[in-house]
Amino acid sequence: MEQDMAGAIRVVALGNDGDGIAETPAGRIFVPGAVPGDVVQPGVLHGTHAALERIISPSPDRVTPPCALFGQCGGCRVQQMALPALLGWKAGRVLDALQRAGFDTIPTPATVQVAPQGRRRVDLAFRREGRRIVLGLHRRRGDVVDMTACTLLDPALFALLSPLRDMLHSLPGVHAGGDIQINLLDSGPDLLITMDGTPDANDRRILAQFSKAHGIPRISLGGTPPETLALNGPVFHHFDGVRVTPPPGAFLQPARAGEDAIRAAVVAALPTKGLKAGIIELYAGCGTLSFALAAHAKVLAYEGDRAALACLKQASGGTRVLPALRDLNRQPVMAAELAKAAAVVLDPPHAGAGTQMAQIVAGKPRHVIYVSCNPTALQRDLTPLQQLGYRLERLTVIDQFLWSTEVEAVCVLKLPGTGKNHRR
């Protein structure tokens, strides 16, 4: 239902999708592009959303978006908001989730915000349009926008986009388009391409030449498992000084500074006593946290992805990391084992810890360090811990997805009690 809006409205908050919120006599209205503190004239109301027709009085937190593609490219949602204010909003989202989980006493969060042009992981789409390749991100609920500018990407990745367009255009195996994931590893860019055709000998020759010309150690074809199409040198990355060989498309924190901040917060949260009992790490991946944890105690590192687990195993020789394959949703680590650990560290996927959380609740480990990338899942997973009496000892909020609505948090929880590791 459409409705004309008469008069100015004041934007008082941001919604979870980054749209401005105004409270009006007609109810709550969402205004994309508005910033808290703006006084705006909204356009026609469609349900609960109205376009931003005119800014009557700008918020002190409103800035000129730094990227020429803002408003077209779907990579950034809130470039019209000053970064310090954006960090404050993201911290507020985490605090709200913890309050909804039932925590009455929440420590003042430490906050970290990465610098622009630090993004080292990106998933792009490409499409043939006439005689050119369009390579970039989808606009909001729309087509691919050619990424001719970017304030997020590491300059080394952005510089690769132009030659990538030319190379993709020359591939016989690309008909209408496909997708490409790029990880900037310590060994150089690592590419995982999905195309809508089947690569032949010509595709492989072109990819091999491109790999060599641009210093790309590996280019792989998406599939189960991925297939290496071009190999031009060793593929490696380092976690806390340990060299690993990530599989194609491996999970990598989007910014090195963000990864460092997460690792530092987790290590600082380890208990000072009882570490001989060892650490249980859940969702270990390729070892983002594992080797840093192993500097302090034996680490039983569980991971459900076979390729990531193989990478972790290969690198764990001579360390105190003990990798184990486990689908933690279908076969969670059981309560009795969790109860014996000096600390349980988990960095679950966006959807949260799922059925694994029930075993953590049942095991009641004394120390739980939870790394979150989703305030909604954070609230759901930590609510039963709060109900058991866990205290929130420390909180770190990390903004490594600049100008987006995404936020990371490290929550340090402790169950008060007596006895070693609070065993029951």
UniProtKB/TrEMBL annotation:
<dbReference type="Pfam" id="PF05958">
    <property type="entry name" value="tRNA_U5-meth_tr"/>
</dbReference>
<feature type="active site" description="Nucleophile">
    <location>
        <position position="373"/>
    </location>
</feature>
<feature type="binding site">
    <location>
        <position position="253"/>
    </location>
    <ligand>
        <name>S-adenosyl-L-methionine</name>
    </ligand>
</feature>
<keyword id="KW-0949">S-adenosyl-L-methionine</keyword>
<feature type="binding site">
    <location>
        <position position="303"/>
    </location>
    <ligand>
        <name>S-adenosyl-L-methionine</name>
    </ligand>
</feature>
<keyword id="KW-0411">Iron-sulfur</keyword>
<feature type="binding site">
    <location>
        <position position="283"/>
    </location>
    <ligand>
        <name>S-adenosyl-L-methionine</name>
    </ligand>
</feature>
<comment type="similarity">
    <text>Belongs to the class I-like SAM-binding methyltransferase superfamily. RNA M5U methyltransferase family.</text>
</comment>
<keyword id="KW-0808">Transferase</keyword>
<keyword id="KW-0004">4Fe-4S</keyword>
<keyword id="KW-0408">Iron</keyword>
<dbReference type="InterPro" id="IPR012340">
    <property type="entry name" value="NA-bd_OB-fold"/>
</dbReference>
<keyword id="KW-0489">Methyltransferase</keyword>
<dbReference type="GO" id="GO:0051539">
    <property type="term" value="F:4 iron, 4 sulfur cluster binding"/>
</dbReference>
<dbReference type="InterPro" id="IPR010280">
    <property type="entry name" value="U5_MeTrfase_fam"/>
</dbReference>
<protein>
    <submittedName>
        <fullName>23S rRNA methyltransferase</fullName>
    </submittedName>
</protein>
<dbReference type="GO" id="GO:0070475">
    <property type="term" value="P:rRNA base methylation"/>
</dbReference>
<dbReference type="GO" id="GO:0070041">
    <property type="term" value="F:rRNA (uridine-C5-)-methyltransferase activity"/>
</dbReference>
<keyword id="KW-0479">Metal-binding</keyword>
<feature type="binding site">
    <location>
        <position position="347"/>
    </location>
    <ligand>
        <name>S-adenosyl-L-methionine</name>
    </ligand>
</feature>
<dbReference type="InterPro" id="IPR029063">
    <property type="entry name" value="SAM-dependent_MTases_sf"/>
</dbReference>
